[in-house]
Amino acid sequence: MKLICETCTINRAVTGGKRAFQKTILAIGKGSERKGDETKIMLITTANKTGTKYSVLKNISKLFTRFLEEGKATISFIAPEHDVQIKSDKVQLTAFLKVLKLVLTGGGPSVEGTQSATNPFSPSAPLRLPCLTVGKKKASILDSPSVLSTKCTITNRKDYPTKGFSRLLVSLQISDVKLSRFDSQILLLQKLRILNLSNNCIRSLPRALGQLRLCELDLSSNCLTGCTWDWLQEPNIQSSLQSLNISDNGLHFLPTNVIYAGALVALTANSNHIRKLPFAIWTMNRLRVLSLAKNQIDGLPETLERIRLERLDLSENNLSVDGGTTGPYPSTSMQQRQPSTLFELTARTVIDRKLPYATPGLMPFTVVDILRRVPLCGCGVPCFDSRVYHRTKLINGRCSCLVLNANHLLIADSVFCSDKCLRKANERSLHIRGF
């Protein structure tokens, strides 16, 4: 049994004997080909390619597995007085420790105390271990830069791994290989934090993508016009994703599910065909960088004023005042509205008082979805059933750096909760007509 991992050997007999982690081949097997030779564990490192052997039977005082879920374990030997700390993939480390346990227990019964005829490690199928040898090929594995690497970059089809990705990957880039569908092997990389799938031909993304705890995701230059974006409704991706790039995907609208990415700091959606933004964008209170250059946006939601941005790029859009506005309105009174329903009154109270409602299981998702997507009037009142008036007013973006074309302004679309707010909008729209 062989395990490629990182180890740190601590000599308990020497004060301050801790050393740094280094690439290691950890193997378990017979010390030699002689029948009477006992089982041993051998460590092969880049500094010691001949290997260090430790006896197993009656030589292990403790086996620490409290952090096995994190891929960490420690083997404490009696002689010599060494503690070998191990960091590896959780699945592979678990398999190695199972073999070690079978050696220590003599291939005894399973945990439940019963023997299984199908168990290859049961007494009916004696545990057979190889003889420990050190060859040049085995030792040279540690010199490969890809061994235990946490970063992988693939820009050519021939570099695509045939045996899957390393479970230790933290950063993965697959670009310019004409990938037509999402590789399900990526879903197995639980430590992955940065994923770049730019310049491919991906048309859809599985919902399971949202179960990864990604911090950065680059999906630019693909074909995601028909993507459902339901993966953004998964709790893991909502709490971890900080940077999302969906530029050059032929999108006709900004995916509404983006508002569920509560930790998002930077959103880039350049070179699409986006015309409108969701009113619920105001709920993304951690957003600091919003780049929407080279789209067809002709009006922004008024709620954009509620976000404090560091950079807003709206260059090469349709925000010219020459496009016209809908104000002033022909009438200063709104259409006769029905009295607010009990649901609307309750929902307004929840939003106004900022009561927590997004906790999973607290209320049906459909209700949460309505509360998250509701437009707000300029005065802050939620409007559940109101007409959207296009290009009604000018807004001042709360932004440190604003990128706009010459003669372009931040023209906003609005909803109104009452005649009073509508009349105020009529008065302000006169300024737009004066340009």
UniProtKB/TrEMBL annotation:
Coiled coil (UniProt feature): none
Keywords tagged on the record: Leucine-rich repeat, Nucleus, Repeat
One Pfam family named in its UniProt record: PH_LRR1
Signal peptide (from-to): none
Family annotation (InterPro entries): Leu-rich_rpt (IPR001611), Leu-rich_rpt_typical-subtyp (IPR003591), LRR_dom_sf (IPR032675), LRR_domain-containing (IPR050216), PIF1/LRR1_PH (IPR057437)
Matches recorded under PROSITE patterns: LRR
The PIF1/LRR1 pleckstrin homology domain, residue ranges: 1-107
Source superkingdom: Eukaryota
GO CC terms, sorted: cytoplasm
Name this polypeptide is given: PIF1/LRR1 pleckstrin homology domain-containing protein
